[in-house]
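Hi C.,

You asked whether I'd gotten around to modeling the 276-residue construct. I have! Everything is below, sequence then structure, no commentary in between.
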Amino acid sequence: MNWSLAFILALLKFLGQTKSGHLLFLEPFFVFLGHLHFKINQPFARCQQMYIYTNKIFHKHTSLIFTLLGAASASIAFLIQRLSETYFPSMREVVVYFAIILFAIFGAIIGKMIYELHYMAMFDFLTKLGNRWYFNIRLTQEIERNRSGNYSVCVAAIDVDNFKQINDQMGHYAGDAVLVNISNIFRKYTRNMDVVARWGGDEFVIIFPDTDMRSSLEITNKLKDVVLASEECGIATLSIGVVTIARDWDKKQVIREVDLMLRAAKKTKNSVVSLA
């Protein structure tokens, strides 16, 4: 196989491994072609690895779809290779080229559709933060990790103070702009590992994985102070409740306890109330 084909394989394989997922399910196909020509890896073994990888990024049902499509693409690649050797031995490389182009187009279309549907289901349209469903999935994962050993998880519930007043006096577009500005502040002043989501309306939630109460309070107080000082947020301030998840808590218990802290914070507004 010439170097141009090797380059195409390497490029498409790289695209297939990106988190966008547009060509992710073609990973076993590319590995299969690499196995044919370079004797590296086994494509069907990579299907299992791909399920583990995508399960960390997407919901388990979505990752299963990617994996099944990957297995199907590897199977078709195997069929194409066998047919080309049997019926078109002199055109084997041309057939491989054609298969790569066909699968790349197919993968880009189907993968993009799946990813966009996944994004719409898991993320809030206005703020581009995770939505309640996304938060619940991640919270379940962190509760399981918390039970497994020496692992501390904190959760914050946040309410935007004076939001109704902003909507009534300045209109809903202004209210939406405030929510977007607050969301951008959350992105800027939280860590990459933190899970920030819009619970609904003017309420947000944050999961602080592998984080103690002291560090969580440092972050939440920073968020409160930045919003208070922000001209773009107007008269909006933040009331925040924070809890450390106990080992025996389930998801409902976590929501119940952090909501109690949030209610206490809302009594005075622009405050943070915690339960260690």
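If it helps when you're writing up: The beta strands are 154-161, 195-200, 203-208, 237-244, 272-275.

Thanks,
B.
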